[in-house]
Amino acid sequence: MAERGRAFQKGQSGNPKGKPKGARHKTTLAMEALLAGEAEGLTRKAIEMANDGDTVALRLCLDRLLPPRKDRPIRFALPPIETTADLTRATSALLAAVAAGEITPSEAAELGKLVDAHVKAIEVTDIQSRLEALEAVKR
């Protein structure tokens, strides 16, 4: 039985499926209704203000026209990594690409994380193989 004053059991969600996809907040819907039909005029005004030197309007326009790039494909020749010994060749290639300006340091850091995860997977596979070999010898 539920505790007095509680509508739901402790630890159970009142809405286990959560908010449906595409559901929008009432405030968002109200703002969209207020701006309906005004977007073109407001955009034109923001551009005019930016052209007149309003730096806030300029930033707003640029942020909407050219949002910050989150990610991009990188064309980069990374040596194959088949054993943990190949790790030094891969990291050397990353360092050389940064030094040559082919990729940014943050891109190299992200690629380094991928290389690290791959090497860990190789290590786990190697440990599994060794364990299976030891168990086979004991039988």
Structure characterization notes:
The chain is mostly helical and 139 residues long. Among the domains are: 26-65, no CATH class; 84-138. The protein is 58% helix and 0% strand. Helix 2 crosses helix 3 and helix 4 packs antiparallel against helix 5. The longest helix has 34 residues, at 105-138. It is flat.
Contiguous low-pLDDT stretches (5 residues minimum) are none
- Strand-residue proportion: under 5%
Helix content: 55-70%
Care to count the β-strands?
Answer: 0
Series of secondary-structure elements, N-terminal to C-terminal: HHHHH
Task: Tell me, briefly, the overall form.
Answer: flat
Brief synopsis:
Residues 1-25 are annotated as: Disordered. With 139 residues, the protein is mostly helical. The chain has helices spanning 26-35, 39-51, 55-65, 87-99, 105-138.
Task: Give the helix/strand layout.
Elements: H1 26-35, H2 39-51, H3 55-65, H4 87-99, H5 105-138
